[in-house]
Amino acid sequence: MADVETLHFRIGLAGTYWAKQPRYGILVNDQVIRVDNIQAPSGETEYVEFDAEVAEGRCELKIKLINKEASDVVKDDPLSPDFKIVQDLLLNIKSIEIDEIDLANLTHTKSHFIPDDKSLPELDMCIDLGW
Fold first, then answer.
1. Is residue 1 over pLDDT 70?
2. Phi/psi class of residue 18: alpha, beta or left (left: φ > 0; alpha: ψ in -120 to 50)?
3. Residue 78 CA to its chain's centroid (Å)
4. Which of 40, 109, 120, 122 could pair covalently with 115 via S-S, beta carbons 3.0-4.6 A apart?
5. pLDDT tens-digit profile of 47-99?
6. Angle ∠(46,27,108) on CA atoms, nearest 5
7. Is the model's pLDDT at 16 over the cut of 90?
8. What is the 3-class SS of the chain, one letter each residue?
């Protein structure tokens, strides 16, 4: 059996929103740790802290935006191919710390976005969720 240790996570999240708060899920090695709504005003960071037991070896942290719908995106001219988005619903990952170690560099260089809509491409180095 692999060695298990308890790690302390501190994740800074911010929502960009105009009508409803972003709802997020946090998973460690596919175990749901937390599902909640962003409580801070749009654009302001709030911190989620928790402890999780992980086995020695590879560990995967997943952060999901789980309530975005097409109606959450408002375009200035929806019929124009050059439209601009004027209102949106996004979940922004601002920071990740594990046992007081800031993972800023890894957050930006090792992140991988997998959209729910499989017709959209997966993106590397993506910390703003909500296609």
1. no
2. alpha
3. 27
4. 120
5. 999 999 999 888 999 999 999 998 999 999 988 889 999 999 999 999 999 99
6. 65
7. yes
8. CCCEEEEEEEEEEEEECCCCCCEEEEEECCEEEEEEECCCCCCCEEEEEEEEEEECCCCCEEEEECCCCHHHCEECCCCCCCCCEEECCEEEEEEEEECCEECHHHHHHCCEECCCCCCCCCEECCCEECC
Tokens of 104: 């800023």
Give CA separation, 3 vs 8, 51, 54, 77, in Å.
17, 16, 8, 56
Tell me the whole-structure pTM to 2 decimals: 0.88
